[in-house]
Write a structure and sequence with these properties.
The structure is a single chain. This protein is an alpha/beta fold and 337 residues long. The chain is built from nine helices and 13 strands. The protein has a seven-stranded mixed beta sheet with strand order 9-8-7-10-11-12-13. β2 and β3 form a beta hairpin. α2 crosses α9.
């Protein structure tokens, strides 16, 4: 590549084969060579980065997969995504290209531009080309919180929509964000208020102040709103990691009469025993993009399929470097994708 003429270089954030695979596909589409660098850990676990070529005067694009969706406060700690945003800005980053953030509001954590691309066009194309008789399919939201994304898919495919209700809405427990602190136990021996643990230095509420009892949530039985009988059920989500919820949803859909079940998700983390659980479940196919490496999981479970999204990432890099509009990459895209 003529570095002086192009004025930009593309590097992989580490030297592992899994991470460089996506970077190589992007550079191949751009017609450039992947930058020469080595990332390694020394004996004291310190991470070192060696760039093996000159980058003076160049615009640098770094490809990295970050399997993190921590955008909520846990207990009284930091919001991890905000912390990462501050660290990246301090390190000198001036622009981020990402895909399907877990929450769109994460873009507001950054003090520089963020282009949150969408994988939905690639997944919709897969449904149309690779799912036999997809016209007999129905798009399924695994929980009410995923209904907007599912509705967006259903409207563009001209398909029906079903919503499952009764599952846990998130994996974090209610204790994680401090909503049950202080403990909601009545003090029956003194003035109304909250009973303090033995030896606690926390002051009791003022006399006459009685805080309302915090009622525990009770999950209703799982129900499916919508008819899936005799249909192909396609569950859409942004992340598939621990697959127990997806496996349970597939069992319910099977009981309701769905004869094939697909999972469509952008980021396939597929951690722990996910490949084995998918292989043994009623799920027929799990389709994810290559934003996160999962080649090992594919070897363990033939049901896992991959959609390549390097094309749109490469085009985003080209447009940013040339100062072209990014609007083209967001055509026919809704905020609910």
């Amino acid at each position: 590549m003529n570095v002086a003429k192009s004025g930009y270089r593309v590097f992989s954030a580490n030297s592992t084969a899994a991470c460089t695979e996506l970077a190589k596909k992007i550079t191949e589409r751009l017609g450039v060579e992947l930058g020469k660098s080595v990332v390694y850990q020394e004996s004291n676990r310190e991470t070192r980065v060696d760039v093996k070529e000159s980058v003076r005067g160049q615009t640098i694009f770094i490809i990295q997969t970050i399997p993190s969706k921590q955008c909520k406060m846990r207990k009284r700690g930091s919001i991890v995504c905000k912390l990462l945003a501050s660290m990246l800005a301090k390190a000198g980053l001036t622009h981020i290209i990402t895909m399907d953030l877990h929450q769109k509001e994460i873009q507001g954590f950054f003090s520089f531009p963020v282009d949150n691309l969408r994988a939905s066009p690639f997944l919709l194309q897969y449904i149309q080309e690779e799912v036999p008789d997809y016209r007999n399919a129905i798009i399924v939201a695994k929980s009410p919180s995923a209904a907007k994304r599912a509705q967006s898919y259903a409207e563009r495919l001209r398909l029906g929509l079903a919503v499952m209700h009764g599952e846990a809405q998130c994996s974090e427990s209610d204790m994680a964000d401090g909503r049950h602190s202080p403990p909601c136990v009545r003090n029956t021996s003194g003035h109304p208020g909250l009973e303090l643990p033995s030896g606690s230095k926390q002051q009791a509420p003022f006399p006459g102040i009685e805080l309302p009892i915090m009622m525990a949530k009770e999950k209703p039985p799982i129900t499916v709103v919508g008819d899936v009988g005799g249909r192909i059920a396609i569950i859409v989500d942004d992340i598939i990691d621990d697959v127990e919820d997806f496996v349970a949803a597939a069992e319910i859909l099977k009981e309701r009469g769905a004869y094939k079940i697909y999972i469509m998700a952008t980021h396939g983390l597929l951690s722990a025993d996910a490949p084995r659980l998918i292989e043994e479940s009623a799920i027929d196919e799990v389709v994810v993009t290559n934003t996160v490496p999962h080649e090992v999981q594919k070897l363990q479970c033939p049901k896992i399929k991959t959609v390549d999204v390097s094309m749109i990432l490469a085009e985003a890099i080209r447009r940013i470097h040339n100062g072209e509009s990014m609007a083209y990459l967001f055509r026919n895209i809704t905020v609910d994708d």
